[in-house]
Design goal:
9 helices; about 60% strand; tonb box; receptor; Plug_dom_sf; Plug_dom; cell outer membrane
């Protein structure tokens, strides 16, 4: 298999890429000198490091001249608020929501849909990740490496069709981004006194006949949260006095996430106007410890008194749950394009790998028994996901203003999963041993014994190979005020599943499917405004855990979950209709409406087979059933106030109103996790005479509702306020102070839990839980010096 060729150290691969960059100038020296016009063209695209570091003007949303509906945000748009990651940057663009923990922005939900409905690209390439829904957590991409963020609302035949909600393309800095270099240094200051440093070095310049860009970034990460849960035996639906009559227990938890991210970006490019060659590599590593300490009490407020070794105690349990995470991802790509008599030929090949290692332990002492008991659990997760892909496209010039493109795409994906657990350690602890135990001075891990060897969990040891072979064709062109694109893509996929945790007769499975995906977009210039209309068919491929043939007992309340190797992708027909109007020289205001009709929707269905927990429980299986609809309207504004005499005041804002409808066995609901709205607005004031500026942004998203078998969750977020103050010193130095989460934003969740589906219909609660987590403000000081 071709991907096996790439096994080995990421360092060796990146060094090979660097060697190729160095080797290229030696060969190129034998060729005729590059025409002066080529240097001029490259210089037109390149800004000096001083222009990047000392941002004297306000950044606005870009105008995209392509036919397809695309919003482009350069780094100047969000840089002054110093986002740590690509996810943080996306909090300021339309229609992106998150269901992340407080202070985190990982799984982007374009138009509020599950992350698996959004295509995430880096430099136009698909990237692997550890998530079973094929999504990629954007908090792993440092914002310092970003050149621009693109939101592509409708799909094109040039891209794979995995974009039901749309596409988010993170464009990293390339060799034409910057001339010169700069140093970055800073620190994050948290409300508990913790300080996390950050730093980086970036350089771009001419190298041989081309240009080179290199950057490294180290970022301390820290997230201290407080969480409280109140659990009841019933809910207000059945008992208005549940808080006093049905109280069961309270849990207080400290959740501290402490780690460091390391990242690097390397790019070399050559462009003489006819030939362009580019080689790029990027690397990200995350080392992170997540430490949770939880206490359960039998009182709504009290923490005093001895542990529950007698009737007077109120500490029910003490839990220590550390999770140690190490993630590495890297990618290497090469791209060549040539303009010649027949048109333009483009070839691109790339390889990407994602490695995820997690070790999770849990130690707990349960005092709420006649004899206290210690329980210890250990689990490990190892996931390696490789993707090798290539694309070849030939564009033919049919006539002035009309081109025809024909292309092919291949991708070989190998995903190896190893999830294993040690048999549970469980034993009674005598009262004599626990005498004098205090949650303030003692810890449950003090009683731990060595864990036995781990064994794979059901569905936890498998290999998935997914091979794609696509071809596409499209026409594109310009006719007066009209730009257009229309294309057709044929996607053919073979999936091989080998699950080593099931019987041999069920372990090996092969599934094949193919789709025709038409798409079209048109953009019409109307004076200072532009009308854009587009339509496309897209797909969402099944989750990896859903296509494993394993049976997971008591996975859904007391019900079991059985995978389905024959599960097929969901498909969607959709359209977008938008209008944007230019305001002054740089401003723009826009509105867009969208609709998606999702077919072959994957939902959990009752097989009517009795579950492992006995009478009243069942085996559920994901199947392609029913349809769903998604619709909404999106507004955005980015402009200065020059029309009212305030050219140094920039305002920006966006509002998305989104909704959907889907049927499950309990009735109608929105798509799981979809917020009804999300908005943010802000202002930046520049003081050119003083070399200073300040700004603020405010963000809020609506509540989200999830309903699955055995559980219903309603999630609400508080508002988020961020401010910055900036001082520019000379032409080379900028210092910036940023305050984020200034409103102590909280995440509040309501859980309805049921043992069986029948109980869920009858509203017979197994547990009703109110959970809230909160984190304090974060302050950041960052300085950059250009050279």
């Amino acid at each position: 298999m071709m991907t096996k060729f790439f096994k080995g150290s990421h360092r060796a691969i990146l060094l090979c890429g660097a060697a190729l960059c160095i080797a290229t100038p030696v060969h190129a020296a034998e060729e005729p000198a590059v025409p002066a016009a080529a240097d001029d063209m490259a210089d037109d695209q390149t800004r000096t490091a001083r222009e990047i570091v000392v941002q004297g003007s306000i950044g606005f949303r870009n105008h995209s001249d392509e036919a397809e509906p695309k919003l482009v945000y350069d780094e100047e748009y969000f840089r002054r608020f110093e986002p740590l990651t690509a996810g943080d940057a996306l909090k300021r663009v339309p229609s992106v929501t998150f269901l992340s923990d407080v202070l985190e922005s990982d799984g982007a939900r374009l138009r509020g849909l599950d992350p698996g409905y959004t295509q995430i690209l880096i430099n136009g390439d698909r990237i692997p990740g550890s998530n079973v829904d094929r999504s990629f957590f954007l908090d792993r991409v440092p914002a310092e490496l970003i050149k621009q963020v693109e939101i592509v609302r409708s799909n094109s035949a040039r891209r794979t069709g995995d974009a039901v909600a749309g596409t988010l393309n993170i464009v990293l800095r390339d060799a034409f981004t910057m001339d010169g270099g700069y140093l970055r240094g800073g620190a994050l200051i948290f409300d508990d006194g913790e300080i996390k440093p950050s730093g980086g070095l970036y350089y771009g310049g001419k190298f041989g006949p081309g240009r080179l860009l290199a950057g490294v970034n180290v970022q301390g990460r820290y997230n201290p949260k407080k969480k409280k849960s109140l659990r009841f035996d019933d809910s207000p639906e059945n008992n208005p006095d549940y808080a006093t009559q049905d109280f069961n227990n309270r849990e207080d938890q400290d959740d501290v996430r402490d780690g460091t991210d390391y990242a690097g970006n390397l790019n070399w490019a050559y462009d003489d106007g006819e030939n362009k060659f580019e080689i790029a590599g990027n690397y990200v590593r995350t080392d992170r410890d997540q430490i949770e300490r939880s206490f359960e009490y039998n009182d709504l407020t009290s923490t005093s008194g001895p542990v529950r070794l007698n009737a007077d105690g109120n500490l029910l349990s003490d839990n220590f749950n550390p999770l140690f995470i190490k993630q590495e991802s890297w990618a290497l790509s090469g791209k060549f394009s040539k303009e010649w008599d027949l048109g333009k030929t483009t070839f691109k090949i790339s390889f990407a790998r994602f490695d995820n290692e997690e070790d999770e332990l849990e130690h707990e002492i349960d005092f709420n028994r006649s004899t206290p008991r210690y329980t210890g659990d250990f689990a490990l997760t190892r996931i390696q996901d490789d993707e090798l892909s290539g694309q070849l496209e030939q564009t033919f010039r049919i006539s002035d203003g009309l081109d025809f493109a024909l292309g092919g795409f291949f991708q070989n994906k190998d995903r190896d999963t190893n999830i294993a657990e040690a048999p549970r350690n469980r034993f009674n602890v005598s009262r004599t041993t626990l005498a004098g135990y205090s949650q303030y001075t003692n810890a449950p891990q003090d009683f731990a014994i060595d864990f036995r060897p781990v064994v794979p969990t059901p569905g936890g040891l498998n290999t998935i190979e997914e091979d794609r072979r696509d071809v596409y064709a499209l026409v594109e062109g310009t006719s007066g005020p009209v730009k257009f694109e229309a294309g057709l893509r044929w996607e053919n996929t073979t999936v091989r599943i080998n699950d080593q945790t099931v019987a041999a007769a069920l372990a090996l499975n092969t599934v094949k499917y193919d789709f025709l995906l038409p798409s079209a977009s048109v953009k019409i210039q109307l004076g200072d405004g532009r009308l854009t209309a587009s339509a496309a068919r897209t797909v969402r491929r099944p989750r990896f855990d859903y296509i494993s043939p394993a049976l997971l007992e008591a996975e859904l309340g007391d019900n079991d979950l059985l995978g389905n190797t024959g599960l097929r992708p969901e498909t969607a027909w959709g359209g977008d209709l938008g209008y944007e109007h230019r305001l002054g020289r740089t401003g723009v205001i826009g509105v867009n409406v969208f609709y998606r009709k999702v077919q072959n929707l994957v939902e959990l269905t009752n097989t009517q087979v009795e579950g492992s927990e006995g009478d009243g429980t069942f085996v559920y299986q994901p199947r392609n059933v029913g349809d769903g609809e998604v619709w909404g309207v999106e507004f955005d504004l980015s402009a200065d106030l020059g029309a009212v005499g305030l050219p140094d005041t920039g305002v920006f804002g966006n509002l998305s109103l989104i909704d959907s409808s889907v049927e499950d066995e309990f009735g109608s609901r929105r798509f799981n996790g979809q917020s009804k709205y999300v908005y943010n607005f802000g202002v930046i004031q520049n003081f050119p005479d003083f070399g200073a500026s300040f700004g603020a942004t405010y963000r809020k998203q609506g509540s989200a509702y999830d309903r699955t078998v055995g559980e219903e969750v309603t999630t609400r977020y508080g508002a988020d306020l961020e401010v910055f103050v900036e001082k520019r010193i000379g032409k080379s130095f900028t210092i910036r102070a940023v305050g984020s989460n200034l409103l102590n934003s909280s995440k509040d969740e309501v859980f309805n839990k049921f043992a069986t589906a029948a109980d869920q219909v009858a509203r017979d609660f197994d547990e009703y839980e109110l959970e809230s987590e909160e984190a304090g403000p974060v302050f950041q000081v960052v300085a950059r010096y250009a050279f």
